Amino acid sequence: MSTTPSASPSTDVFELAAGHEQVVFANDPATGLRAIVAVHSTALGPGLGGTRFHPYASTEEALRDVLDLSRGMSHKAALAGLDLGGGKAVIIGDPRRDKSEALLRAYGRFVQSLGGRYLTACDVGTYSADMDHVARECDFVTGRTVAHGGAGDSSVLTAYGVFQGMRAAAQRLWGEPTLAGRTVGVAGVGKVGRHLVGLLREDGADVVVTDVYAPAVEAVLADHPHGVRAVGSTDELVREDLDVYAPCALGGALDDDTIGVLKARVVCGAANNQLPRPDSADRVADAGILYAPDYCVNAGGLIQVADEREGFSFERAQQRASGIFDTTAAVFDLAEREQVTPAVAADRLAEQRMRDVGRLRGIWLGA
Length: 367
Hints:
This protein is 43% helix and 16% strand. By secondary structure, the chain is an alpha/beta fold.
């Protein structure tokens, strides 16, 4: 297996990865593996983050995504109070066509070669059963199946954390920490979105859903014959009379076009990197929308898989994920106090912990 960069000649990796500790590329023609791992910061501990399996249009697109995602993981772990840094991996390909045991095991050997600086887990396109294959070649794997001592599907607590963040936003705007009687639009009802719909219905919300994968929508409608309806696209969804918009698919959800038509007063969802540009947070605020920062509210999955390192307890992990309510409220309080957007406030809280608690050496070299 080789580890040579495959970015296009026009891509300056060092410029793109400014602020990251390490970016490594894996290429294994025998299995079709093409992967990138980005370790953003290990100031608080080894970088933990999932492996995204996605058919990127180019290596540069994959590189930009893994850099953004790993940076978000550093902030997510810090804000969640975990002794972990930020890392992320992407495998370039279509998981429905290209995923195989051989590829996953080759990927496991590659992660093993990093010596524990990066701990992998599930993400879009990968599942707990995939992590079991990775773990056959690698010691640095979380998010494994329950049968193999793992936490299982991390989307359960990811959805739970998003719901807690949504409750904090409801408390902020409407004076009660509940979505009862509100209409919530969920874009993406795969692993996380499907669980989120269930929590919202239990709380008394009406839900409107959409997904590019029709069977995912059909499954949600079958689970919830009342109080849930579907629309054909995200473009339709954001034009609905929503109180809350929950992006739960891929990033960049809050682009200018969406902000311009969105009727919801709250945005709180599981998707990473919802703000496509640095000024997008200002655009959201100017539109009168309360934004719950994605890496603050979607940390439940990270909390869940991180708990495996202590011997997994769902009850303990859920209790810690419940704290996302208070963390989100603290972000809103700081934003109001310092007259900044919630996105800036979340960054400040995360970076303060990384400074105050981070290891003096800054680089995690393993035990």
